[in-house]
Amino acid sequence: MNEAEKLKKATYHLWTFTASKMIAMLGAHVMAFGFSLYILAMTGSAMSFATNMICSVLPRALVAPIAGYVADNYSKKRTILLAQAGTIVTVGGLLLYTETVGMSVYAIYIATVFNTICSAFSGVTFSSAIATLVNPERLQRAMSFNQMSMSVAAIGGPVIGGMMYGFFNIDVFLMVNMVAYAIAFCLEATMDFNLYSTRGKDVKKEKVWESLKGGFHYIKQRKVIKTIMWVALWINLFFSAISVGGTFIIIELLKVESTHFGFIQASGAAGMLGASVYFASRSEVKVPLRFSKISLLLLSGSVALAVIPLVTDFSYLAVVIFYLIIYFIFAIFEMGINMPIGVYMQKIISEEYRGRVLGLLETMAMSMMPIGMVIYGILYDTVPATIILPVTSVIIISISLVMLRPSILREAHPEYYDQKAIAESIPNSTT
């Protein structure tokens, strides 16, 4: 295949995987919305709702390293298609169970666990394959389109699900999910996951444990990658202050209506969509780790601002508008952290290790979310939110300054800092 044909195929990939991801995620969000409402309607228990959330997070954190091993040692295309097929079979099984026995909360839990495992394999494998689907010059655009599709699904899923809930039973939600994943399956079956691969065809497969050890060793030998993974771990822990505290402050303390809170959450998805469009339309970030550090510091500072309505006499309308803006800003800065680092990781991680490294990164990041939720759940019941958020903000800023210190940035981007040093020395040499 000549270069012109490869570029044409890469362009096809850019639009095809964006469409497939959007359709699949839209189906997933519609079904998740339906599940949450049906669980609350059947049980009236917040604990039952929380259990389903755990079923959608914990299995993914546990199997992500195995998914990374599979992505590095087996056909990426086959893995993704099998994972998509697994989702269709799982939802089809739940639909059959519902038609013959009737819906139950435990059946939803089991289906959620299997769906989450399938999602882990397809998600990690897809992440490790983006750099082989498109040419390096369009890597940032591809990842932006990927995030854009998820943002559109995050906005559209609850809207469609909300409209459907009043007119259809759970069976229709399940069928929508199956149709969405079937369309995604057909689109992904046409893609060439080795288009820009640099690996040889005769790759020796390792045993699982040896492969995972190799992934750990690879990370250990690369200081910058190791630093990024530790930053992701701590940030996911401490940003539970917003994921837990945001709802608590807005609903419980400020008494914002649930409908208006839905708009506030949607503003976050809109912020992600806007940031995705920005990154898709601009040239690649030249110093990604530095860009991400600045975004992280800005996001950390914004966390402290979230307490302003608690210490001022805002009207109800002012409170809603304030949090619409703050959630929009959170999303933009979050994308400013994730997008440059994501592109940077795709480029610096060797293809033969990419799946394992990204799988381990996902496990480290996601494993801290339940811990953070528990810690901050206890803190918000015992300590005023006006103390928790400013202190958390200071902690995150300190982590950013220490872990992403100038020496790490210089090691990550020596070409930029060497040129900067040369440029700064020129005036001194002429005086």
Structure overview:
The protein has two domains: 8-141 and 159-192, Up-down Bundle (Growth Hormone, Chain: A); 217-412, Up-down Bundle (Growth Hormone, Chain: A). The mean pLDDT is 84. It has 18 helices and no strands. Helix content is 84%, strand content 0%. It is mostly helical. The protein is globular, with a radius of gyration of 23 Å. The protein has helices at residues 3-43, 46-55, 58-73, 76-100, 105-133, 139-165, 170-188, 208-220, 223-238, 240-253, 258-281, 288-305, 308-311, 316-348, 351-382, 385-403, 406-412, 414-430. Helix 3 (58-73) runs antiparallel to helix 15, helix 6 packs antiparallel against helix 11 and helix 8 crosses helix 15 (351-382). It comes from Lysinibacillus irui. It is a multi-pass membrane protein. It is found in: Cell membrane. One of its GO terms (molecular function) is transmembrane transporter activity. One of its GO terms (cellular component) is plasma membrane.
Evaluate the radius of gyration. Answer: 23 Å
List the domain count as a whole number.
2
Q: Given the structure, what is the number of helices? A: 18
What is the averaged pLDDT score? 84
Weakly predicted, low-confidence segments: none
Membrane topology: Multi-pass membrane protein
Protein name: MFS transporter
GO molecular function, one term: transmembrane transporter activity
Pfam families: MFS_1
Q: What is the gist of this entry?
A:
The protein contains 18 helices and no strands.
Task: Describe the protein's topology.
Blueprint: H1 3-43, H2 46-55, H3 58-73, H4 76-100, H5 105-133, H6 139-165, H7 170-188, H8 208-220, H9 223-238, H10 240-253, H11 258-281, H12 288-305, H13 308-311, H14 316-348, H15 351-382, H16 385-403, H17 406-412, H18 414-430
Helix pairs in contact: 1-2, 1-6, 1-7, 2-5, 3-5, 3-15, 4-5, 4-7, 5-15, 6-11, 6-14, 8-15, 9-15, 9-16, 10-15, 10-16, 11-14, 12-14, 12-16, 17-18
GO cellular component, one term: plasma membrane
Protein name: MFS transporter
GO molecular function: transmembrane transporter activity
